[in-house]
Hints:
The chain is about 20% helix and about 30% strand. The chain has helices at about 25-40, 60-65, 120-130, and strands at about 15-25, 50-55, 70-80, 90-95, 105-115, 135-140, 155-160, 165, 180-185. The model has no long low-confidence stretch (mean pLDDT about 90). It is globular, with a radius of gyration of 17 Å. The chain is α/β, with parallel strands linked by helices. Strand 2, helix 2 (about 60-65) and strand 3 form a beta-alpha-beta unit. The strands form two sheets. The protein has a six-stranded mixed beta sheet, with helices on both faces. The protein has a three-stranded antiparallel beta sheet with strand order 1-9-8. The structure holds inosinic acid and magnesium ion. Magnesium ion binds near residues 53 and 112.
Amino acid sequence: MAKKEKTIRSKHIRPGEKVKVLITRDRIHKRILEIAKQIRRDFPEESLLLVGVLKGAVFFLSDLARGIPGEVSLDFIAVSSYGKDTKTSGQVRLTKDLDASIEGRTVIVVEDILDTGMTLQYLLRIFQQRKPKRLRVAVLLDKPERRIAAVQADYVGFSIPNEFVVGFGLDYAERYRNLQGVGVLSLKPQDKSGKSAD
Ligand code: IMP
Ligand code: MG
């Protein structure tokens, strides 16, 4: 039997757009804490550098960082993928670089979602050249069906089906990042316009 779907009802959901709950806030928080503990278990003695990919990863990163005991520092990078719709085009461009060197550091790249893998493939290539001691990837969401680039995350919050999702940092045209959980966005055909850069 199909699971009952809960649609988010709010005046902030635009007409013609619908968001169906996929993962609740509580499940997300629980899972992030598990990942945080796992990361510390994997690197018990190390000072960790979490690198967040702006802007989508900010919510995940802030919960993750607070869940990891011990020494943690943060840096951010921003990329933009040229895509107009709810699909990424695969071309990635760096719009903000890290503030500091990662040479010799244990780096965890923190991303909101691993989709085609083009963004992470591009970033990992850049970071690898900068000689970190260790380089790992943590993503809140993984859409394995959409993968083009051979990229795998070391830590995955949730594996999800091939649907366009918003909330907990993920946007549609810069909106819906602040929804507390993750939901599937559906649009009436005439409203499919401009998904912005990350
Ligand atoms: P990739 O390069 O195709 O792996 O895509 C990575 C970026 O595309 C993510 O960091 C998101 O910004 C964006 N993206 C991919 N899928 C979704 C989605 O379902 N909702 C919102 N943004 C998405
Ligand atoms: Mg992103």
